[in-house]
């Protein structure tokens, strides 16, 4: 029994932010029904290669991107552009607790699937809209994409190497962080609305915007600007407020030091054979080191070139200063700590019984995450959901299929 067992979610979202939210809710025990377009489904079903391999090692048509954000759900293929499809969704909403959608602001109203219409049908419904810019404001009608939001929201201005160094210039992050963070914030908003519903008996509309989330998660960088009036720049792998807190090059490869306070700096200097550095008036306090960033970093960088990365890491780790290697993804997934935390999980798929993916980081003592099913194939559960939830007969299902209103996966 998961923490959200008994909560039913209708997921009308596509691509990443909304599906990520739905996947978290599914991990926590909610029943999540994903509504997709017949024929093509979620856009990310076509975002390959890579694709999942079947049990014989042959490529399938199941895109890895789609699978990363849709485990635990049931797929129902319904044509929302048809009056019959809209009526099916409204019938499903009557018995749901949560609806997630990421259509352009106002676009679902013409289908009778907007919050005001569905709240009349089900006053307890928690309706979560995820858009690029929100339901209000001068840009509300515009589509929003993670890459654009990272640029508009200031993230790319502080990500990447300094302009005056080789490779300098703005960079997006390696994953769609605006989408993923919006999925997380949306999950929080939905759970807060569900708790409030217990007190009031009514649901509400959660208006979530990628740009809002991106600006909110600038964290210390935005407050640094508000406090100082100085626009933060890019520091590459360094930190705006802490020194030394960056990548250093050893004789063989790079490694990271994250020295978070003055006591750690003293310990670091002793461990690497530069105790005098911690008593230099330019470097005693972190504020001093930030002011004299280039001098202290140059001394450390030159010193580290004389030894091997593993040797430096071992010495620094011994004095409890945060330090570590830089793994690629294969190395990261092979870390003993990741293995010990059960972060790689086998979720048997109809096409691949040995299917493995990265699991949830949520660890709950009383209601642990359970992986009920892998990401569904398109329309895999259409017949079962419409039969069990709405009472449609075999003849009714066949008629809707003949009209192209619904689709059932052949497997």
Mean pLDDT: 96
- The end-to-end span amounts to 28 Å
Q: Helicity range of the residues? A: 25-40%
Per DSSP E runs of 2 or more residues, the count of β-strands stands at 14
- Indicate the structural class: alpha/beta
Note the overall shape: elongated
Q: Main sheet: which strands, in order across?
A: 8-7-6-1-2-5-14
Range of strand content: 5-15%
Briefly, what is this?
The chain has 411 residues and is of the alpha/beta class. The protein has 16 helices and 14 strands. The strands form four sheets. It has a seven-stranded mixed sheet with strand order 8-7-6-1-2-5-14, with helices on both faces. A three-stranded antiparallel sheet has the order 9-10-11, with helices on one face.
Can you walk me through this structure?
With 411 residues, this protein is α/β, with parallel strands linked by helices. 36% of the residues lie in helices and 15% in strands. It has a 7-stranded mixed sheet, with helices on both faces. A 3-stranded antiparallel sheet has the order 9-10-11, covered by helices on one side. The protein is elongated, with a radius of gyration of 25 Å. The model has no long low-confidence stretch (mean pLDDT 96).
């Amino acid at each position: 029994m998961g923490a959200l067992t008994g909560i039913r979610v209708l997921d009308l979202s596509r691509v990443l932010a909304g599906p990520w939210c739905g996947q978290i809710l599914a991990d926590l025990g909610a029943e999540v029904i994903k509504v997709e377009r017949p024929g093509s489904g979620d856009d990310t079903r076509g975002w390959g290669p890579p694709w999942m391999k079947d049990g014989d090692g042959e490529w399938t048509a199941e895109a890895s991107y789609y699978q990363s954000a849709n485990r635990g759900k049931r797929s129902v293929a319904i044509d929302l552009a048809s009056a019959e499809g809209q009526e099916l969704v409204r019938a499903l909403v009557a018995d749901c607790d949560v609806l997630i959608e990421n259509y352009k602001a106002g676009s679902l109203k013409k289908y009778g699937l907007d919050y005001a219409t569905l709240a009349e049908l089900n006053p307890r419904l928690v309706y979560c809209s995820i858009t690029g810019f929100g339901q209000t404001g001068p840009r509300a009608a515009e589509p929003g994409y993670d890459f654009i939001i990272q640029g508009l929201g200031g993230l790319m201005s502080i990500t990447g190497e300094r302009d005056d160094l080789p490779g300098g210039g703005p960079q997006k992050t390696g994953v769609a962080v605006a989408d993923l963070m919006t999925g997380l914030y949306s999950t929080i908003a939905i759970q807060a609305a569900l708790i409030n519903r217990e007190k009031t008996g009514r649901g509400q509309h959660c208006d979530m915007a990628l740009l809002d989330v991106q600006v909110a998660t600038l964290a210390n960088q935005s407050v640094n600007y508000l406090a100082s009036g100085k626009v933060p720049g890019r520091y590459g792998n360094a930190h705006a407020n802490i020194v030394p807190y960056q990548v250093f090059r050893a004789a063989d490869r790079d490694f990271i030091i994250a020295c978070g306070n003055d006591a750690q700096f003293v310990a670091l200097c002793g461990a690497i054979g530069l105790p005098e550095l911690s008593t230099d008036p330019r470097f005693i306090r972190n504020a001093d080191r930030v002011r004299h960033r280039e001098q202290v970093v140059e001394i450390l960088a030159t010193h580290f070139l004389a030894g091997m990365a593993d040797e430096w890491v071992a010495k620094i780790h011994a004095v409890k200063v945060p330090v570590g290697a830089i793994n690629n993804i294969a190395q990261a997934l092979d870390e003993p700590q990741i293995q010990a935390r059960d972060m790689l999980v086998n979720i048997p798929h109809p096409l691949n019984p040995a299917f493995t993916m990265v699991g949830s980081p949520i660890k709950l003592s009383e209601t642990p995450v359970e992986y009920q099913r892998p990401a569904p194939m398109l329309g895999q559960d259409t017949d079962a959901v419409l039969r069990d939830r709405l009472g449609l007969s075999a003849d009714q299902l066949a008629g809707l299929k003949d009209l192209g209103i619904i689709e059932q996966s052949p497997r």
